[in-house]
Design goal:
By secondary structure, the protein is an all-alpha fold. The chain contains 9 helices and no strands. It has 2 domains: 96 residues, no CATH class; 53 residues, no CATH class. Helix 2 runs parallel beside helix 5, helix 3 packs antiparallel against helix 5 and helix 3 packs across helix 6.
Length: 198
């Protein structure tokens, strides 16, 4: 009867007896060993464990009144901690790989004050249609002029008077080169003036 009642007491209070060992003693020992090794894998495991343990403790402190009404909470917590701690399961590493790392690597942010903004170009085709509309309204020369101006601004050139004069000369040369051959005048050609006989 003495041994049977001892086993019942141990079984009934397994969470109280094994809890400190599973949640503190072994993780502290393993964390010290992880510090001494050069492998980042065990560091990951134990850093993640301590973060999760802190979150569990914070949850317990926050919802203490609710947890009092859950008789299975201490056993569920013990089982979860065993899954996180035991090297056979490496639950903390699993949680890191599948939940924490993707969140950090993808750099997802949650904005609780989200205000939708009007997006002028919601689809890639909108940019193309806007360019086509601009060319239809202003012509291809105006579009090329706009592109050159944008290049000049992006290169950091300032618009000095000499730059503008030079740009106008280049534009005239380009326009001349675009004319059909029959419309071009020869280089040395001067137009003859017709004078009326008086």
């Amino acid at each position: 009867m003495g041994t049977g009642s001892f086993i019942k007491v141990v079984a009934k209070n397994i969470d109280v007896l094994a809890g400190p060992f599973v949640t503190f003693v072994y993780p502290l020992y393993a964390s010290v060993k992880a510090i001494e090794t050069k492998s980042p894998i065990d560091d990951q495991q134990w850093l993640t464990y301590w973060i999760l343990y802190s979150l569990i403790t914070l949850f317990e402190l926050t919802f203490a009144k609710l947890i009092e009404w859950l008789p299975f909470w201490p056993y569920a917590k013990l089982m979860f901690n065993c899954w996180l701690v035991l090297p056979y399961f490496s639950g903390a590493a699993y949680v890191y790989q599948h939940y924490v790392r993707p969140f950090i690597v993808n750099k997802q942010t949650v904005n609780i004050w989200y205000v939708p903004q009007k997006n002028i170009f919601s689809e890639p085709d909108d940019v193309l249609s806007a360019v086509e509309r601009f060319i239809e309204e202003n012509g291809p020369d105006a579009f090329e002029k706009l592109l050159k101006k944008a290049k000049r601004v992006s290169n950091g050139k300032t618009s000095k008077k000499s730059d503008l004069v030079e740009e106008e000369k280049l534009e005239k040369q380009e326009r001349r080169s675009m004319l059909p051959l029959t419309w071009r005048r020869p280089k040395g050609h001067r137009s003859k003036r017709i004078t009326k006989a008086r």
